[in-house]
Protein: Pentacotripeptide-repeat region of PRORP domain-containing protein
Amino acid sequence: SFQAAILSRLRESLDLPACEGLHLGPMVVLPAAFLVAGVLIRGRPGHSAAAAASLGAQPHSAPTCPLQPPAGGLAAIRAPREVRFVPCFRAAYEIDGVVVPRTGEAGYNVTGSASGRDIAALLHGLSKSGQLEAADRTLRAHLELRSGRAAGAQTADEAGRLVQIVLNSLADRGRMQQCAGLLAWMQARGMPLGQVTYCTLIKGHGRSGDWRRVKQIYVAMRRAGVQPDLATCNAAIDAFTRSGRMTNAELVVRDMVTERVVSPSARTYNTLLRGYATRRGTPRQRARSLRRAFGVLRRMRSRLGPAGPDAVTYNTLVAALVRHRRVAAAQRALAHRK
Structure:
């Protein structure tokens, strides 16, 4: 039975005593399957090979360069010992079709026959557990293998979804240099960068306060003919306003309106308004920024209608007025909101 097979794998892999008569519920079976999968691809000398052979997987020895697929359709990945699981049961159960352990080495091979769904599950698990180098190598090996197979080459959308998993994880952890390395690798192989990829880069550099890089990416995106969506435009505006680059933020809004790239949303205007309302400088400069914040409010009403401004809009304005000690104006703003 399935439960007996899982218990057998656990006993063999972890030297557990016999567990006859033990009933496993669904909350135990699935984690146990992950653990068994982890033992199968951990890559310890002799141990991984024996466990993989029990499921019908044949160990392979392969070169360790992830960019040149070795003979037999395998791209080798030299992964650290922390890579110890396949984070989906389908991939764990069909491990001989996804990854193949190497004899006597701390690593595994990604097979060209692995589906995008299985690779996506593997990338999600590696990324969420912080094993970003392994996720990066796995992605590159898979893309290299798939691009070399004319009959089974992935579409740009399918490849883009896999790239997005790794890029998001790298950007969330502020590892933008590694993002740049992955993108350079893709561009060198003629792999297109999609809308979502540009958005991820803009968000990542925006979080790190690198507004110059955000500007470069936004300009490159437009020159490449990739149309930014609302999320990308809002991410660029947010990055510029957080760095005090209001002119750059206004240029993005202008593109949205005059070139009809995408219609600004309440969030678009609220982000721009917040940039003016919280801008630092001399008293005169802050007063001018406050006037421009109210100008954004007027544009917001004109574009989105009377219902456009929301609670975030008025809270931002009231907080700015209070900071400027204009209590009466703050009270009028609250009354207008009601």
About this structure: Residues 10-98, 149-153 have pLDDT under 50 and may be disordered. The chain has 16 helices and three strands. Residues 193-264 form one domain.
